[in-house]
Amino acid sequence: MQYHEEMQSPPVQRTIIRGGDAPPPGPAPIKQRTVIPPGGQQQQPMFSNQGTSVAILGLSTSTSKERIGNLLRSVGPIMYLKVNQQQRKATAGYTNPEHAHIFQQRFHRQMIDLAHINVSLV
What we know:
Layout: H1 2-6, H2 46-49, E1 53-57, H3 65-73, E2 78-84, E3 89-94, H4 97-107, E4 111-112, E5 115-116, E6 118-121
Antiparallel strand pairs: 1-3, 1-6, 2-3, 4-5
Protein name: RRM domain-containing protein
Organism: Strongylocentrotus purpuratus
GO molecular function, one term: nucleic acid binding
């Protein structure tokens, strides 16, 4: 028994840091920077170079024009909506190019009526 008591390791010291020095939990904030080309002009935001239209491919045959319109209007006002049920695709135009970009980010590769749709900017 005496042999077992001699083999114990010394106690470990631990330091606990509390206060405002620790970063908040969660992901770090994303820092953005603006790159000014040698000409001195700032670049336009990404969505301003894109069109205001979106193409939706791979629709289910059971997806109605009303359902597609509701999805599109959940992002912003639309100018037009053309649906081709035989080719399982639709094309829509937004009044604002930013809305088209947001729709593509939100609904690309999402499942709608048991079909994965592909959304691209036109």
